[in-house]
Amino acid sequence: MIRFRLMDAERRVEALATLQSHRWMEFSKMADSMKELSHNMLAQSKSNTRKAAIRADLDEELEM
Fold first, then answer.
1. What gap in Å lies between CA 33 and CA 30, rounded to an integer?
2. The dihedral of CA 2, 4, 10, 16: what is its sign?
3. Cα dihedral 26, 31, 35, 41 sign
4. CB count, 10 Å around CB of 21?
């Protein structure tokens, strides 16, 4: 009886460890996705800023 309970407890611990490992892997994937999104947004922002500066320069030249 005690041996059965011990084996059952070990199975539960293994199941919880597997679940926790899966959750950490999912969290890691999400963190990587957020890093990529942040990088892409920063690159887009820099690109838009450069485009706006170029447009402003062109507008100034056209006004002259």
1. 5
2. negative
3. positive
4. 10
Measured distance CA(47)–CA(56) in Å, rounded: 14
**Residues counted in the chain:** 64
Distance CA 60, CA 64 (A): 7
Whether this prediction's pTM lies above 0.70 is answered by no
**CA distance linking residue 37 with residue 45, whole number of Å:** 12
DSSP per position, 24-59: HHHHHHHHHHHHHHHHHHHHHHHHHHHHHHHHHHHH
Q: What is the pLDDT of residues 11-53, one digit of tens each?
A: 999 999 999 999 999 999 999 999 999 999 999 988 888 877 7
